[in-house]
Write a structure and sequence with these properties.
Helix content: 40-55%
CATH topology of the largest domain: Tetrahydropterin Synthase, Chain A
Number of helices: 7
CATH superfamily of the largest domain: Band 7 domain
CATH architecture of the largest domain: 2-Layer Sandwich
CATH class of the largest domain: Alpha Beta
Order of helices and strands: HEEEEEEEHHHHEHHEE
Distance between the termini: 150 Å
Strand content: 15-25%
Structural class: alpha+beta
Length: about 270
């Protein structure tokens, strides 16, 4: 009975040591994350194997796991850049990015967990300065918003091509100009719109006048042709036809033959 506690104490110590080692050896990777294994006695960062995926993992207690978020993430940037004529423009943009999953070990080894500040932010700022510097404030304010967005995306993606980072999209959310420049541009756009409306009214009026001239000319030509075709003989024949039709009517009337101008009949009725 006296020997039992002496035997139990070493066992208890061993159990405690095993629990501590197991706690240090167990790693849980949450959803949307991946782990980079660092082997203390095996060459450091593991780059030739896939990263540790989601779930429970057991590693040697002397090794480490660095956990990275591998979901798409968003970076918001407010940048002051210069236009082609040297005016300061503020660009509000955002970038959608994520680490390249299969290259997570290389990313950790070369850039580390601060890769956003080390490469992504400098890349998008450099691309924005380069792209915006090609355009005037008027172009940035009106028609070229989509163009600069696409160009910033293309140039940023090119910079990040060998940095183990995947750029999915760049969105230009707002372009802010100095108030004086903005007001001048808006005033010019209003004047251009008013000029276009005035030109449209002139064109419409000219077309309407042309239409009326054509219609008047057509009526004149028709009357001229009709007048040329109506001889006295034709009029007399038409008059006789009309007289015959009226004589067949049940209404009472008096027809005086040959009493009208040019010998046309006169019809006297009860109306």
């Amino acid at each position: 009975m006296e020997k039992l506690p002496k035997i139990g104490l070493p066992i208890l110590i061993v159990v405690i040591i095993l629990v501590i080692l197991l706690a240090k050896s167990a790693v849980t990777i949450d959803s949307g994350e991946a782990g980079v294994l660092y082997k203390t006695f095996g060459g450091g960062v593991v780059t030739d194997e896939p990263p540790l995926g989601e779930g429970f993992h057991v590693i040697a207690p002397w090794n480490k796991v660095h956990v990275y978020e591998v979901r798409q993430q968003e970076l918001f940037e407010k940048m002051k850049v210069l236009s082609s004529n040297g005016l300061e423009i503020q660009i509000d943009a955002s970038a959608w990015y994520q680490p390249v999953y299969g290259e997570l070990g290389n990313l950790h080894q070369t850039l580390g967990e601060g890769y956003l500040q080390r490469v992504i932010q400098p890349a998008i700022r450099s691309a924005a300065r380069s792209v915006v510097g090609r355009y005037t404030p008027e172009q940035l304010y009106s028609s070229k918003r989509d163009a600069i967005q696409d160009e910033i995306f293309t140039e940023t993606k090119k910079i990040l091509e060998k940095q183990y980072v995947q750029l999915n999209e760049v969105l230009v959310r707002d372009v802010t100009l100095p108030n004086t420049i903005k007001e001048a541009i808006e005033r010019k756009l209003r004047q251009e719109q008013e000029s276009l409306e005035y030109e449209f009214r002139l064109v419409t009026a000219a077309k309407e006048a042309e239409k009326q001239i054509i219609e008047a000319k057509g009526k004149a030509d028709a009357n001229k042709i009709l007048s040329a075709s109506l001889t006295d003989k034709i009029l007399q024949d038409k008059g006789i036809e009309a007289t015959i039709k009226l004589s067949e009517s049940s209404n009472s009337k008096v027809i005086v033959i040959g009493s009208g101008d040019s010998g046309m009949p006169i019809i006297l009725g009860n109306q």
